[in-house]
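Task card 7
Instruction: Convert sequence to structure tokens.
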Amino acid sequence: MTRPADSLIIFIARLALAILFLWGGAMKLLGYAGFVGYLHAHNVPYAQFTAPVAVTIELLGGLAIVFGVRTRFVAFMLAVYAIVTAILGHDFWNVTQAALQQDAVVHFWKNVAIAGGFLLLTVTGAGRASIDGLRAPRGGFGG
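Output:
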């Protein structure tokens, strides 16, 4: 049972997390060839397959989080995705130039923090300001 203020804060958190994925997915789609090249440069296996999967996860996952659809499941999947992309895309342990390594370290830990936010959303759910919240049964007496 969430209070209205809690639901508003959860909604704001959902938007904050989703914006990054919606923006990233859109930019990957608009610069698709460059994104595939980036995947190849980072030795991501099956880049031709993983590129459309990544774009789809980011765009559909971001939309699902904004609207609060199957939030617990989607948030958990995006937490896993954030960790996988941290390991594959921000592998600072393989970077030799100091400035580039520092940038990769920051991006790696940002992904870990984002995963943490999604894990919290996995536990809290979407709140009432969501499609999930509209579908949830309401108890009697103010429920």
